[in-house]
Design a protein that fits this description.
Elements: E1 8-14, E2 38-45, E3 48-54, H1 56-59
Antiparallel strand pairs: 1-2, 2-3
């Protein structure tokens, strides 16, 4: 059975890496791989929220 996840865009918010946190690693854009500066939140059902990170350029195309 092939189930496709339905992502419903909620909103976009600013994201800042916290390099001084222990074991913190840089976060990268899921689209192009550059440093992430934005987080997009999606409702995927049953109260589950998916967070994806994007650079400023790619965040403009998030829906």
């Amino acid at each position: 059975m092939d189930l496709e996840m339905q992502k419903n865009f909620i909103h976009l918010r600013s994201f800042e890496d916290k390099p001084n946190y222990p074991n913190s690693k840089p976060k990268f854009c899921v689209t192009c791989g550059t440093k992430a500066t934005q987080e997009a939140l999606f409702n995927v059902g049953d109260g589950v929220i998916l967070v994806e990170k994007y650079c400023d350029a790619c965040a403009k195309n998030v829906k």
